[in-house]
Each structure stands twice: as structure tokens, then as C-alpha cells.
Amino acid sequence: MTHRSSMDRSRRSLSLSPMIVLIIVVALLLLDWLGVMDVDNLLGGHGPVVENPTGTWYQVYFTSPRYPDQPEDHHGGLDEKLAAAIAQAQSTIDMAVYKLDLDTVTEALIAAHKRGVRVRLVTDTEYVDEMAIRRLKSAGIPVVDDRRNSLMHDKFVVIDGNVVWTGSWNFTINGTYRNNNGVIVITSPALAENYITEFEEMFKKHSFGPDSPANTPYPRVVIGDTAIENYFAPEDGVAEHLIALINGAQHSVRFMVYSFTSDEIGEAILRQARRGVQVQGVIEGRGTESEYGEYDKFRQARLDVRLDGNPYFMHHKVLIIDEQTVALGSYNFTANAEKYNDENVLIIHDPDIAALYLEEFQRVYAQGQ
Hints:
By secondary structure, the protein is an alpha/beta fold. The chain has 13 helices and 16 strands. It has a single domain, classed as Endonuclease Chain A (Endonuclease, Chain A), CATH 3.30.870.10.
């Protein structure tokens, strides 16, 4: 009895009157207004911004690789869809892409620039001397490269500050017609602002990799009934968000990943498998013999994980949870992606979008071995 009464007194002594709570809240808001304290971060960041679309707000596209690839088959691909979108641009095009060698996209960018659209591009140093990049520069389009050993590995475009293209797709012949890739196109001013913020860090401030600040305006966006999380690497610690997603799985975890060497993400998947959660995966076959890869661990644990069957490359970076949620973007499950490269990820909580990626997973999985 005495012990219980002591606990009750402790609880009463810790309780705060409404007036004290009000004073604390007002003080925090004043400190935030004066710039002394970032209350948004103290309280867990911004709440989600909510957008109410009036029509279809997303499209999802996948490549259809053929083997052997023939140049005469290079038509009707993602390059033509992107070129058509660029042709409709009214004011701005911001593109951050690891590599560009597609004539269709290059010519569309030059045409947009000539008709008065502001076109800007960020790329990786390794590919800054590509013919496509030289053509853009010659046309007067400004191009910034990262000038470092780690990768500017993003593959995104923002059109008119309103539409975002992102995914695993490099804007190359290989990426379009030989490799397994996907891209999602989302109409969302808030999401576009996130990507423009990231773009301008690189383009204007030359802040790449670990120098990039964690300043995404809207990490959480709700479009209609769909919640979207938006993260950039390395500043946002993407791995912990993917691990939290995996840890929350109730019955299934599926993935298709070009490179998988992250022990932390691998262990999260193994833990869920031991709990009885269904695990299926596909990993690009090249490089799995590395001592750092997770494939052998999965096979030793008798998980249903396959090597891909594309004679070229399976280039996806996709995680599907419970057929309800999909994570996608440029982020391979590696230490380089987590700590050094410029990457972007969307976690989309929408069963209809997840179903599209599940269909692609099943196609890639069926071709695996």
C-alpha cells in the first residue's frame, strides 16, 4: 500500500497544469520565431502536407528488356515518354541524372531551352564528357557535375515545379532498352519542392554527398488518400527508414535490388523471415560472389531469393511490404548509397501503386534463377 501511494504521489507531482503547458508551448513558439530553436525538429519535424488532386496524379512505367538487343527495336521506350513530357514543359526543367546518352531526351532538352524554358542539369563527374552533355553545354544549357569520387547517383526530373519523375532508370540506351528499370511520375507541388531543394543544393551550392544538409521541406506528403515519405541520402539516414518498414511487415517482404551489401537491411529481412514473414527477392547476378554481398546469407537461411535472369542488368531498387507499401528510387542497399552517394527514395503507402510494382516483381522473379 505504501509503495503504491508513493507512486501515486510521484505521478501527481509530475503532472502539469494547463496554464503551465500553455506557457511552455508559447515559449517554444517564441524561441522558434526568434530563430533560437528549431521547434519543428524538436517535435519530430513538419507534419505532412496534404494535397487533394483533381484527377490522375501518378503514372508508373517499366522497361521491357529484350535479348539480344537490336538498335532497330529502340522505340516506344521511356525515353520517348520523357521527351514528350519535356516537350510540354512551360517554364522550368531541373534534371539530376547519373548518366545521359539518349538522343531523344537530349534533343528535347535543347528544344525546350530554345523556346525559353529554363533547363538546368546536374550529373556525375564520370560522365560529364558524354556527347549528350557536351551537346547540352554547346546549346547554352548549364551543367554542374559533382567533382568527387563518390556518385551523384540520382535519376530525377522536375518539370514546371509540379511534376516529378524518379526511380531506378538512368537516361541511357542500356537503362531504357536492356536493363530492368522503373520510373514513377507524380504530380505534386510539395514533392516537386522537395526535389528542387535537393537539386539546388547541388546546382547552386555544390553540396554533394555528406555535405548535403537535411532540409527537405516536406518529408511527408499526403496526396488524396496516399501517404508518401520522401528521403535523400546520405543526409536522411535512409537505411533506418527501410529497416523500420521491414520491421513493420506483417506477412510479406519482397525486394528486387541491383546491389545488396547492407548487413543492417539484410539482418532485418532475416529477422522477419525467422518470425514467419514470407520473404522473396531478386538480386542482380553480377557481383553476388563478393564477400560483402547478402545473397549467400539469404541462401544459407533458405530464403526464397533468386539471381536475376536478365543477360544485361536487373537494375531495380524496390522494396514491397505486405502488398500495401513500396519503397523505390535510386538507392541500392549498400554502404555507399547510405553514406556517400547522392540518392533519393520514396516510400509510398498505396496498395494500387504497390500492386503495379508487385506485378513487375513477379515478372522479374519468374525470370530469375
